[in-house]
């Protein structure tokens, strides 16, 4: 069998058929037998070993959830039997260090670890870190073979190793909601950009270099694309940002190690393509932990030098930030096609894909790269699923900041709320629970009352206001020239104020605060006293650290925060 098959594994249940494959002698016939606990043969499949690498592949008949089963591959007089196998749903969890954070590192870690024994039918697997300049057929190494969860041996193995807290908490919650065995596959590496997880097809589609050197020139992708959300024509956000602000480039002109384009796709994703999946969870985009000019909390030497912790440097808040609105949707589409093809059509073409919108980093930062990347995570449309990102779901995390995390503020410890929000999206999008509210309120229209100097914003859901005085909204007005349009630095502790963008003779283009006057059942009324000209833009929670812990201005009755918008 290939490297990621083993005792205790979970294979995908019906309506899909699980794919199993392995290595053998060229031309030989391999017989695959699935047997029940009593030894009763459930099914047999035969497959021929084909070249040039000498592999065989078999697609099992769709199976109901449950187990245990035994799976035997026999070639001549040789045979290998895998035991304690269950059929359920298999989820792949990928990304960088926030996905790699283990159950040992979250809040209430001791309680979470102690609860592991209650979930023997949530099985876990972790691939080892590996990179390659060419696409590999199988994993080079496995960190954690398929295992029944235990507190010390696997869920709490160490910091940024295995097992992923977000992945585990999501899988555990899916098991509680569905009652089906769950298989979790962790494939994550800290500090890695999306380009490393992307095939060459994605890089080509987005106009990015495929080698390790990149210049400072890149195709411009407007931050304003698709930002109109059914507003009056007066309020459509057409003007582009200052082109100088549209790129995040690193002073390092060469990428190396796990940051090189496609090296993680080649070594850690491509080998898994034959696997039949039910869904994907993704947490990626945050900067590396070790950043110049940022005070670092004390950590052990082992943690600081662990490659799974922070890789070799930058991720997409520092690298190709404004290409993320291409690279992320393109990666999703490419992974879907690749897994569908690799599994002989058993993984569905629109594989459900959930992700975590970036949380917070530096409280007093005037840098808007986090805000821009959050926007680009939605393909510049604010919410998912959308036309560019069908069958996706998002966990908003702007209100889960953790300034005192011992692992750095970029690694918040509240992964329980992250997993809960992912669970809601998975149930709604992947499992079709149409009555479930899985995302926060989002604006559907805005009406300007010129004579009263007010802007009334209507939302898609009932609103709960937790912070009337919080600074969250901005508006934007007439622009004399795009090159003059730059936002002034935020000096108010990093929080994003209610803002509009207006123009005057003294200031050709400027984002202005738009204080909240009133919050109704589904409306927010903003004061535009500082804006006496044409209004062109409105944005919400547009900051690296938009609000305090679980204290953003707007939520729905289910406790889900309103996502940022532009």
UniProtKB/TrEMBL annotation:
Gene3D superfamilies: SGNH hydrolase. One of its GO terms (molecular function) is sialate O-acetylesterase activity. GO terms for biological process: carbohydrate metabolic process. This is SIAE acetylesterase. It comes from Poecile atricapillus.
